[in-house]
Amino acid sequence: MTAITDTRGLAGALRTLKLSGMLATIDARLAQARAGELGHVEFLQVLCLDEISRRETTAIARRTRRARFEQTATLEGFDFTANPKLPAAQIRDLAALRWLRAGESVILHGPPGRG
Questions:
Q1: Rg of the chain over CA atoms, in angstroms?
Q2: Per-block average pLDDT, block size 10, for the chain (115 residues)?
Q3: Burial, 17: exposed, middle or buried (Cβ in 10 Å; 0-12, 13-18, 19+)?
């Protein structure tokens, strides 16, 4: 089997399949694979993750446009110094959603009406 050195055919296939997330990163991923940083399965996995990431980013942008927000804000852009009492580390940890993957509850236990 000969190595594929011309990726034009692959790029054309990715365009046809509307996999622009993969298309945008294929050269970098191929370089990683050639350098021995990625095996076959890892190569395919990171390409798929690139595509998933692009689709998620596009979907968020589309929903934001449709919502017609006057301005958008992100947690990264939030000024936690404006209120030092806010638990910045705890808020960022909750935003990472590790608790969701772990199946943990984030509801604090205590008397009702004190949450």
A1: 21
A2: 64 90 91 93 94 94 91 86 89 87 77 61
A3: exposed
